Amino acid sequence: EVQLVQSGAEVKKPGESLKIFCKGSGYRFTTYWIGWVRQMPGKGLEWMGIIDPADSETRYSPSFQGQVTISADKSISTAYLHWSSLKASDTAIYYCARRPGESNFDYWGQGTLVTVSS
Amino acid sequence: QSALTQPASVPGSPGQSITISCTGSSSDIGGSNYVSWYQQYPGKAPKLMIYDVNHRPSGVSDRFSGSKSGNTASLTISGLQAEDEADYYCFSDISSSTLEVFGTGTKVTVL
Q1: How many CB atoms lie within 10 A of CB A88?
Q2: Confidence grade of residue A101 (pLDDT, cut at 50, 70, 90)
Q3: Which strand ranges, in their side-by-side order, compose the sheet holding A3-6?
Q4: Which of B45, B92, B102 sits opposite A110 (nearest CB)?
């Protein structure tokens, strides 16, 4: 069974760093790209970027380029989303999802709620 | 890149058919064969309903269908049921780049 399991909810202060993870199982992790999607409270889905776990090639939305870093460790079938300095506006649910083809996500993680507050 | 434009809400009665539009440009939907649609219940992760404009994943009801004309993609739900009440998002690649974009989202309400 294909599963993407994400790390648990986080509460952080502005300026702190954070790395959340997305662990894949039930399939060959290096076969499909992984994407990250943000959903701010009460708002819609936003495409942040994608990574090819096979070679760590990444593509970022201009809105998120320089704000976050997407990485992956194929040896442990895990993708990451990292912030070096969080802002209150980073408060959101972050989803990872498997990208089996062009522009679609077939399996999704359960989401990680990140709350940034002083 | 700007989000694709969807109506904020679409109401419907049980048994009725409704259509949700997703309007972009020649740079995304108009130039793409890779439009997908997602259903999201409150507090839950999105679920893929349609991919590659009009293909249904295994397990998705055939009451859901997708199409595209010009710069607008559409999701049609036939025989509307109470369980279809959810948010729906379209998604497309941007053909002039390696980027992708979601629609603004539509809340389907079953009256």
Answers
A1: 11
A2: confident
A3: A3-6, A18-25, A78-83, A69-73
A4: B45
